[in-house]
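Priority: medium. Attachment 1 of 2:
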């Protein structure tokens, strides 16, 4: 892609000024993630990538960090642009049909690898 990469990390692993966001992970544990404050400038186009979105908690925290730093926002094709704006995109191997997964898919441009006919198996962890 010849584009930059920025990891959003668990708190305490970066030795620069950061912005932090608390969240609840897929196992129900309270955690904090952080990102460099100098990494995302207003207007920067962002693609958020996670290997698996189960409950959506981690991705929602990442979205919040990007939003707070001013990453570029696009509207979902089925939402009125003046009501809600969104990051350029969200990608994962699988986005489960949990409440959080559905929330992300309803509001953001998403891409994942699971065919619709197999999605129920992933949602039920089969």
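Attachment 2 of 2:
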């Amino acid at each position: 892609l010849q584009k930059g990469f920025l990891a959003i990390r668990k708190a305490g692993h970066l030795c620069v000024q950061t912005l932090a966001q608390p969240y609840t992970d897929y196992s129900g544990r309270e955690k904090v993630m952080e990102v460099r404050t100098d990494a995302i400038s207003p207007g920067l186009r962002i693609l958020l990538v996670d290997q698996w979105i189960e409950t959506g908690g981690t991705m929602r925290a990442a979205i919040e960090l990007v939003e707070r730093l001013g990453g570029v926002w696009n509207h979902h094709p089925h939402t009125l642009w003046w009501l809600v704006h969104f990051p350029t995109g969200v990608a994962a191997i699988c986005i489960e049909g949990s409440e959080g997964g559905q929330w992300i898919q309803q509001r953001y441009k998403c891409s994942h690898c699971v065919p619709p006919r197999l999605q129920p198996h992933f949602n039920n962890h089969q």
